[in-house]
Design a protein that fits this description.
The chain is α+β, with helices and mostly antiparallel strands and 400 residues long. The protein has three domains: 113 residues, Beta-Lactamase (2-Layer Sandwich); 187 residues, Alpha-Beta Plaits, CATH 3.30.70; 78 residues, Arc Repressor Mutant, subunit A (Orthogonal Bundle). The chain is 48% helix and 16% strand. Strands 2-1-5-4-3 form a five-stranded antiparallel β-sheet. It has a five-stranded mixed β-sheet with strand order 7-8-6-9-10, with helices on both faces. Helix 12 crosses helix 13.
Length: 400
């Protein structure tokens, strides 16, 4: 590994905070990499820095008339450079040099580790794709890896998937699992930056490109006492804001967004991803691209998708629970659907006035956000009720 100006400047910055002295950094050939050389006659290689690297020990020398103590530092048992503490007033102590050497090696290790695991934004994207789609994961290991990649996945978050049609293709090397496919080009990087800026570039919001014109957004949710129901409106609003903003900034691209719900912990984040994927896929097929689809708005059309029965039943309960717990309204809707959405026939079967039936259907529409008199809404309700039998309904008092 070679010492870089970026690492060298970080060493200088950290060391000056600790010691309050001017620091110089050279590579293993004694070439100056970073540091304030004002008033110092530095030209070419600094021989004392080179000696410190070659001999592996502290060298007390000078640059011009100024005393400098040079100390080598290593990475993976290889000397990669030396730092020099300028002794303008008081000689630096061995303890201070030892402390600074440890700090230098920590900074170097962190930078090289990130370079090894994160040569480009594509590595973050690959990590997120594996995190969200793998059949099984080791939660603790994933948290550790995310920390190394400087990705915040510990905060309360829900997933949004953003498809931007007509993107410039990224470079591929024939293997869809390779990082190159996910490495942002100029246009993709600009979209990532735009999304981050729209959400104030806060660390709780993570944005990456997953390939196939799809971006993933882990949308942070602030506050306490969070649950799936009390965060739905927030996520719908943020999704609408994101869709509106991107559509304005990218008029030549068709922007479609799928939004999942919030569930706690890493398992919940993975579940939210599956919901956002369903919302994007099903919404696009049923209503077309260029719109925003929250999983609750897509509703029971997800029952037509290839997803687990338990997830379909859970979503049905989330959407239809106000109806399922009201025996009278449940019976009203069931008979109305069985009679082909015919108000007159359904009212006769229920032995109620037509206006009473209309009143009940209005109430259903207010409770669940789906109007049984509209064909598409009626289809969603019918699909949802397929997951419930009369025996599964909770015992409740009928309402008037």
């Amino acid at each position: 590994m070679k010492l870089t100006p970026k690492i060298s400047n970080e060493i200088v910055s950290r060391a000056q905070l600790v010691l309050g002295r001017r620091i110089l950094v050279t590579d293993q050939q004694g070439r100056l990499m970073a540091g304030n050389t004002a008033g110092l006659p530095v030209k070419g290689a600094i021989l004392d820095g080179l000696r410190a690297c070659q001999e592996g020990k502290v060298i007390r020398g000078s640059v011009g008339e100024t005393s400098v103590s040079w100390c080598p530092f290593v990475y993976e048992q290889q000397t990669i450079g030396a730092f020099g503490v300028i002794e303008e007033d008081v000689q630096v102590t061995p303890e201070a040099l030892s402390l600074l050497q440890g700090l230098t090696e920590v900074v170097t290790h962190q930078h090289f580790l990130l370079e090894r695991v994160q040569p480009s934004g594509g590595v973050q994207a690959k990590f997120l794709r594996e995190l969200l789609t793998s059949t099984q994961i080791d939660t603790n290991e994933r948290y550790r890896q995310a920390d190394i990649l400087q990705l915040n996945i510990r905060a309360p978050q829900a997933v949004m998937l953003v498809r931007v049609g007509g993107l410039e293709p990224t470079s591929k090397n024939g293997d869809s699992n390779q990082t190159d496919e996910l490495t942002p080009n100029g246009q993709i990087a600009e979209i990532i930056t735009t999304i981050q800026a729209l959400f104030d570039d806060e660390p709780d919001n993570v944005v990456a490109y997953l390939g196939d014109e799809v971006f993933v957004v882990l949308k942070g949710i602030g506050g306490s006492g969070l649950n799936t129901r009390n965060t739905t409106r927030f996520l719908k609003d943020k999704g609408a804001y994101l869709h509106r903003s991107l559509a304005q900034k990218l008029p030549s691209n068709r922007v479609t967004i799928g939004v999942g719900q919030y569930y706690p912990d890493l398992g919940g984040l993975r579940k939210s991803y599956q919901e956002s994927k369903l919302a994007l896929s099903v919404g696009s097929r049923v209503w077309g691209e260029g719109q925003l689809y929250h999983i609750r708005q897509v509703g029971m059309f997800v029952t037509l998708a290839n997803t687990a029965y338990e997830h379909k039943a859970e979503l049905a309960h989330q959407i239809l629970h106000p109806l399922l717990r009201d025996e009278q309204l449940y019976k009203t809707v069931r008979l109305f659907l069985e009679n082909g959405l015919n108000l007159t026939n359904a009212a006769q079967k229920l032995h109620v006035h037509r206006n009473t039936l209309i009143y009940r259907l209005d109430k259903v529409s207010r409770l669940i956000g789906l109007d049984p008199r509209k064909f598409e809404d009626a289809l969603q309700i019918k699909l949802g009720l397929m997951f419930y039998q009369d025996s599964e309904l909770p015992a409740t008092n009928s309402s008037n």
